[in-house]
Amino acid sequence: MTIIESVPNFSEGRRAEVIAAIADAVRRSGPARILDLSSDADHNRSVLTLAGDTGGIRAAILALVTACVEHIDLSVHRGRHPRMGAVDVIPLVPVRGVSLQDCARLAAAIGEEIGRRFQIPVYLYEAAATADHRRDLAAIRKGEFEGFPAKIRDPLWKPDFGPDRVHPTAGCVAVGAREFLIAYNINLATGDVEVARRIARAIRHSSGGLRYVKAMGVMLEARALAQVSINMTDFRSTPLHRVFEMVRSEAARYGTTIVGSEIVGLVPEEALLQAADFYLRLEGFEPGRVLERRLEESALPAVSPSVRPSPRDGESS
Amino acid sequence: MTIIESVPNFSEGRRAEVIAAIADAVRRSGPARILDLSSDADHNRSVLTLAGDTGGIRAAILALVTACVEHIDLSVHRGRHPRMGAVDVIPLVPVRGVSLQDCARLAAAIGEEIGRRFQIPVYLYEAAATADHRRDLAAIRKGEFEGFPAKIRDPLWKPDFGPDRVHPTAGCVAVGAREFLIAYNINLATGDVEVARRIARAIRHSSGGLRYVKAMGVMLEARALAQVSINMTDFRSTPLHRVFEMVRSEAARYGTTIVGSEIVGLVPEEALLQAADFYLRLEGFEPGRVLERRLEESALPAVSPSVRPSPRDGESS
Do residue B282 and residue A260 have CB atoms under 8 angstroms apart? Predict the structure, then answer.
């Protein structure tokens, strides 16, 4: 089974009936599922979490763009979050049975279709980017909707697909591919936020730590304890348990310990199986040994009546 | 989603065409899936691992019984493993969204139907047993096919369903419900099997250890190391990580360590999530946070345009 996640952000976070109409259009598009919908009135922006296979995700995104073009007019949109389009950004994320490169190719295919069908300029970003200066979403979005009529004339910012002029009401859109992002927080048995900040500096990539870790130290006032707040940007390369163990080791150096950790939002099964595999020191484990996954992918094994040890004859007395 | 596992054992492990015909009948019965099929010529016995929902499992088992009655004649069957029926034993195991008691009720319903339709005496065992002396499968099976014409006349061994006489070719069958059994081995950094035996005695229920643990110490000659070989009979009550940690602690007392552990056969996702939860000290974790599980069970959340923190707006710059 192939699972792709997509977390499109669209520029409406206030009008309940519009948000509902857009979500409805996505829901009716086919087999992809809506896992979450978060709207923020201050940002005037909503974040939809979708999952499905290649065809389902593609149909859902095209339905989303259709509905947003119909309902959102960016020329009158105000909100605190930077934005350049009615559908602002569409990331594609490999979850299972699909690679980051597959998602980058799908981003290009979907971007091409959006440019052609809706006459919206499309920028490919992150793993789908066509040039280094376009990898970073913030760099693409800089100037926002209001600044894009000028920016789009710069040859450096010619769109990857669609016309060379901003759509009057729908703006532009960024479509990209990236790894699954896990928001992961580790709580310390200390009220000293400086300890959390030092640990964050030790573990994060930007100051010499683990490659796919972003981190900062914050104070959880309600619980009077300090927290290392982490974004894991590629859990397959930098797994949860490695971060946990590094924080444990750094915390000991300050005479404190880990109280607990928390995963914000959803987490792919594989990230937790990695941890079980590590701590139980499993030999030869692979996810196909999980009953539920075998059930999904099951096919009758070739019948072989030759003697082989019964792997799980629970009834043998 | 409801998942029940069933691991029926049937009395044919040599004739490939018969085994294939029986497996085919099960496969054509409906939505239940065959996860594994192991045949042992010495035992002259096969073990089928099935999974599905209530209706699928019921249809698969009835198809299995039909095919075994047709193809197997126990009056000419020889093999090393004790057996009393063409279909010898049918355990039902709760995996997800279903309780042990649900499986016990299903065992009774399936047992009733087997007794009535096939005129085979049926004994309910383990969690489905109707009397304490019938809980244990070995006690029921004692005497085997050849001894049953006498045993069945004893009022203590009157069948739960079906006639009071043994089926001439299909014998009798035991249908029961039990928890999922995990075969779990822990390998030690020592070649001294006595250490593994002592650890096995420390952790197993029969000699004062954990309630749902059976264990013995064995020598892995090929790797020249000792192993604690474990059957976990209820991983929800006695989880893997607790056994692992107890073995680690006992091993340290003998100056040795754990080299690795292995899960034989399949394992329910929940057993590994328990371990990840324990070692990562997760706060407020529940399996619904796993993306794949949310995808299975997804429904659109109520649209609420009120301000709430975006749980995973990975695109916010």
Answer: yes
Radius of gyration of chain B, Cα coordinates, nearest whole angstrom: 23
Nearest to A89 among B300, B308, B315 (CB): B315
Residues from chain B that touch A141, judged by Cβ atoms under 8 A, are: 317
Chosen from A295, A296, A308 to mutate, greatest number of chain B CBs within 10 A? A295
Strand partners, A47: A9, A38
DSSP A88-148: EEEEEEEEES--HHHHHHHHHHHHHHHHHHH---EEEEETT-SSGGGS-HHHHHTTHHHHH
pLDDT tens per residue, range A102-131: 999 999 999 999 999 999 999 999 999 999
Give residue B297's pLDDT band: very low, low, confident or very high (50, 70, 90): confident
Active site residues of A: 81
Task: Identify whether the C-beta of residue B214 lies closer than 8 Å to the C-beta of residue A317.
Answer: no
CB pairs under 8 A between A and B: 279
Of B82, B265, B269, the CB nearest to A292: B269
| Residue numbers in A near B304 (CB within 8 A) | 16, 39
pLDDT (tens place) for every residue of chain A, 317 residues total:
799 999 999 999 999 999 999 999 999 999 999 999 999 999 999 999 999 999 999 999 999 999 999 999 999 999 989 999 999 999 999 999 999 999 999 999 999 999 999 999 999 999 999 999 999 999 999 999 999 999 999 999 999 999 999 999 999 999 999 999 999 999 999 999 999 999 999 999 999 999 999 999 999 988 999 999 999 999 999 999 999 999 999 999 999 999 999 998 899 999 999 999 999 999 989 888 899 888 887 643 333 333 343 434 444 43
Candidates B262, B295, B308, partner chain A, best to mutate (most A CBs within 10 A): B295
Which residue of A98, A103, A179, A272 is the best one to mutate when testing the B interface, meaning the one whose CB has the most B CBs within 10 A? A272
Q: Which domains does chain B have, with CATH numbers?
A: 3-177 (3.30.990.10), 182-284 (3.30.70.670)
**Is the Cβ–Cβ distance between A264 and A185 less than 8 Å?**
yes
Residues A40-70 have pLDDT tens digits of 999 999 999 999 999 999 999 999 999 999 9
ipTM, 2 dp? 0.81
Q: Which of A241, A262, A317 is nearest residue B141 as measured by Cβ atoms?
A: A317
Residues of A in contact with B36 (CB under 8 A): 301, 311-312
